[in-house]
User: Fold this.
Amino acid sequence: MPKKENVLVSVIITCYNLEKYISRAIGSCINQSLEDSKYEIIVVDDCSIDSSVDTIKGFDNLVDVLIVNDKNHGVAKSSNIGISAASGKYIVRVDGDDYINKNTLRTMSEILEWNEGIGFTYCDHIVVTENGSRRQDINTFDKLLDHGAGVMFRKRYLDLLGLYDENLRNREDYDLLLKYIRNFDGYHIRLPYYRYFKRDGSLSTLKEQREDLKKEIDERENVQ
Assistant:
């Protein structure tokens, strides 16, 4: 489809084997109160082996850009691929199993448009589980560093910092945000605009890996 001009916000949706959830993620980004011409949806499929790509293609011209990786690269590189293809002033990344409130793009971009001194905005969450339960989660700064979800960045600042570290297969958000907050101020929107989907299953091994990676990044970045 023809590339949009004067795009304000680029939404980057990353997907790997999320055929059950990707429609919900894309649908929430399509159904936004921000004028359609002011934002673009870029989906990066990280070489899924399920029916994710067919599902994404079913949205036809509602997805502005679809990129299908020829091999699995991980979230960091997939996000960078999407950001490199983006034409918006602002970047917000949405995981393929999460989704957002219809006012997310308009509210977050307006704050950045009217406040040049703010480098990024972040919002609260509603945590949604597979059994349908929902709870609001106030996004303290420590929590933001832990998950990195529901953040809108200025693209030019991301470019200056070198985007995500593609060597990281986890904790890529933590690494990027540490670099970002050293240079640019953030603004907390006390509204639960991001729907953070929590799937069932044991995360004990993953949690251990995440903690090990956090320690490595802290040492590298001299975090006290």
Summary: The CA atoms of residues 13 and 94 lie 5 Å apart. The chain has one domain: 9-221. The beta strands are 9-15, 39-45, 65-68, 90-95, 99-100, 118-129, 134-137, 151-154, 185-198. The longest strand covers residues 185-198.
